[in-house]
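User: Hello, can you help with two protein structures?

Assistant: Certainly.
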Amino acid sequence: MGTVPVVAIVGRPNVGKSTLFNAFTRSRDALVVDLPGVTRDRIYGRCEIAGRTVILIDTGGLSDATGRLESLARRQTEAAIEEADLVLFVSDGRSGPLAEDHEIVSRLRQQGKSIVHVVNKTDGLDEQAALAEASELGLSPVVAIAASHRRGIDSLAAETAPLLPALADDTQDSAEGLKLAFIGRPNVGKSTLLNRFVGEERAVASEVPGTTRDPVHARVERDGEVFQLVDTAGIRRRRATHEAVEAFSVIKALKAMESAEVVVLLLDATEGVTDQDARLAGHVIEAGRALVIVLNKWDGLDDASRRRCLIEVGERMNFAAFAPVVTLSALHGSGLGELIDAVCHVHRSASMELPTPQLTRALRHAVESHPPPSSRRFTPKLRYAHSGGTFPTRIIIHGNRTGHVDASYRRYLINSFRRQFELAGVPLKLIFKDTENPYAGRRQRSPAGGRRGRTVRRKR
């Protein structure tokens, strides 16, 4: 599974950093979300570069402005650079290198990071001349792009890929035990739950939100099962964060989630379900990790409040209805056994090898029970299915005109597979592929005056 690389896009203001960010993320249909934990123009995205999942950060412009907002943005950008594995330094090809660019490059060199120089806005310019002018900054490699037109993005990805950190050994990782990450808003009880799991004070538990900054790792064995636990920093709403160090602990939380096999999303039962809780669940599903939803501080509710809370979870987290819901009190330890059982169950489901014959039978049964509707006079034909891997669990479906399978029928198929194989807590990703027609492109003849396919013999 490996560590997920972090790539930061930096540069002075108005050189096209956000446009480049959008070019990368939109082209991969990735989840682009303005995550909390930042103070100004901070956007995190999840995309792919040369087949590698990457956490991409769009940073604020680095400048010498002395205003409070500018100062906060600068501090966060510097923290992002420190956290990143690779930096994309963006300059403006039209204006050429300015004094600010030289200053930023000097700061980057002091950090000792791998850097790719991106010369943007080269549309309508002589690229070679723009690259020659940019070479005075002394960075290599240098790539000319026009982010607004997506020109040069593939070349940039090709230059970036070799500089990403090497993948970890998956075989070695899997031998270490079940990888389990806790995520959630601040002060929902993640550190307290980790301490309950381990049986000692491994994490600082405090009523002050944001106490956890760096992820805390712990290895524990329970009932013969080995867990690799990661307690992550609480993820705040945007307007509540003002410290760069706290803001960029969000990156560590996302990396922990990407590296995990099972993610426990903690909610504060006394506060109900918030928009941020739902957004975090969406991140887990997008990453394809097994999910368990935990309602903590359950002991602080009366019976009526408990019923309301469960109803609210069902309504506001309906997109994650496949995930088991566990109620517990991390402070007192009640419900911990049920959580361990749920985590082990969803891990088994997410690790399950789905044989092709059973998948194909399940597909045919679903299609026979409810055939796919026609779309623009085209009716999809779904023929067989096979596994496409785990974490995320992928099912590849082959057929004809699969591009006309609509979203509602995709959901129907996902629910059918989930029921058939009892995939609790597992997000499913369906991949459709058209089967090649061996007769495609051949000219079909029909004898004149006869039925199609009829043979007519001439008299001698």
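That covers the first. Now for the second protein you mentioned:
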Amino acid sequence: MNFIDLFAGAGGLSEGFIRAGFYPIAHIEMNKHASMTLRTRNCYHYLKQNNRLDEYYQYLKGEITREELYEKVPADLLNNVINEEISDKTINSIFATIDKQLASFNIDRVDVIIGGPPCQAYSLVGRAKDKNGMIDDPRNYLYKQYIKFLKKYEPIYFVFENVPGLKSARGGETYKNIQAFMKRVGYEVEAHELNAADFGVLQVRKRVIIIGWRKGSGLAYPVFEKINYNAKVSSLFDDLARLNPGEEKNEYIQEPNEYLIKSGIRNTDDVLTLHIARKHNDRDREIYRLAIDKWNKEHKRIKYTDLPEELCTHNNRKSFLDRFKVVAADLEHSHTMLAHISKDGHYFIHPDIEQKRSISVREAARIQSFPDNYFFEGPRTAKFVQIGNAVPPLMAQGIAEGIRENLLIYERLIQCRRII
């Protein structure tokens, strides 16, 4: 079974489908750093399948360059990452590239199309910050490009992922239009708000997941069983070294715990990378100390208006009062990871009061359920953006497995009809 990933980002959704046994025909992503991350991940999967993971780990250890890593895999695996913006100007050339991939691998049909257009135009926060409520943002209409792929390749299934704010964007008009267009090109459609926490992710992360299937196919929206590992968020940090702001340490301090192993976040042969913390000034570290202390002792979030006057530098004392937030190590789920972590770490403070810092790149990736062998390319800011925008791989895997199960039943029915 295969898929095409649109607006692929760093590949969280793709990763889940690959784990569930799907083959990636193409990933389309406009950001150059995310595209490099996708290519590097393609190298991981190829080398793993060919029992050559030690060559991938050479790259993580800095023993070979990225270019040397890329030389170790077939060019087709790198070319299936299409670093292009999806637009009216580029869509035909993107189609041509995908068609070439299909021909080179003798693939005669596309099973699934996955992806979600950038969510800024639909998010509640984005609309609140924009004076026009993002009404004029062209990203409001990227779903129309998604529809063109459905019309062109007629997949059996598709998965369209976005933020819950999609349901209220433009007074709900966009949400209705998206589903109407999908039905118009030949699909039955169903939409649900799913929570990553129900798929074994130690994070509350709600997303609208629209799933469609060909009309008359007899398929349906998959039924997902809730997964609970009975773990605390602290499980994500146990084996990682303490860091001072600006410090990096890429050696584990203990063996992986049960959650890390069961979730696939860490394997015994993994090489730790990207456990690096950003720098902080003394004022911010003091605020972090107060925030951590208040959470650990009272289980309460600190408000900006609770801070001593000498620590307050913002004139705005009425909105965004929860701008400093500690990752709750003693709960089963953290709060939602956001791409805003790329701007500062105030909303994702490490729970250890001795460290007084925001979380590292690797800690953020773990909250999103990315495995430690997943390497993010680009500068630190770009890494945080990729992680914050991603679909958690564990959530994606659960969705993919549900679709795979339905597709297997569908294939058996098709075979039975041919025999009859």
